[in-house]
Amino acid sequence: MAEPQTRTRIQKKNRTTILDAALDVFSQFGFRGSTLDQIAKAAGLSKPNLLYYFPSKEAIHVELLSCLMDTWLDPLRDLDPNGEPRAEILAYMRRKLEMSRNFPRESRLFANEILQGAPRIMDAIKGELKDLTDEKAAVIQGWMDAGKIAPSHPYHLLFSIWSLTQHYADFDVQVRAVLGNEGDDPFPAAEQYLETLFSKLLAV
């Protein structure tokens, strides 16, 4: 009985190794620019060994995106309709910025997929992502209607949070190059700036 359990542990380890290597490759070269050979080399496995776990490059990519989508939506799920509106929106902005700090490869993977027209996650975008965004936009609109925060377009408010926070992951090289020495860790200043920006936008 011990032998199959050992194989299962090895299989889990190899799948994790492949997915982590693929995340590096896909986030750097995009789906079209990546190959199974590159992923196998990054994983330290032979291509036939890799194909034992995943039948194709697309299968690996879909697995990564499926895992990512749930994580990507968590910060928005945490926006509390019963909380103080300004505090909730600023906390959401900070959570999104923290994701750019901690998960830059995942952010670039998502961005590359969107730039290609989202062929592998369009169902999730039109489904789970849209449903959650509709729900939270309605919450934000309710806060605006109640005069708790300044009126604006709730969807474009969310879009602006997405773009301004994910920029620090998707354009990391540019950010660090332009900032010079300060670019060693741009996130504290970015958080302060974005908090000031959105505080002014939301003020009534």
Can you tell me about this structure?
It is built from ten helices and no strands. With about 200 residues, the chain is an all-alpha fold. It folds into two domains: about 1-55, Arc Repressor Mutant, subunit A, CATH 1.10.10.60; about 65-200, Tetracycline Repressor, domain 2. The termini are far apart. The model is unreliable at about 1-5 (pLDDT under 50).
Please give a quick description of this structure.
It is built from 10 helices and no strands. By secondary structure, it is an all-alpha fold. The protein has 2 domains: about 1-55, Arc Repressor Mutant, subunit A (Orthogonal Bundle), CATH 1.10.10.60; about 65-200, Tetracycline Repressor, domain 2 (Orthogonal Bundle), CATH 1.10.357.10.
Write the layout of secondary structure elements.
Elements: H1 2-33, H2 36-43, H3 47-53, H4 57-77, H5 85-102, H6 104-115, H7 122-145, H8 154-170, H9 172-179, H10 187-202
DNA-binding region: 35-54
GO molecular function: DNA-binding transcription factor activity; transcription cis-regulatory region binding
GO biological process, one term: negative regulation of DNA-templated transcription
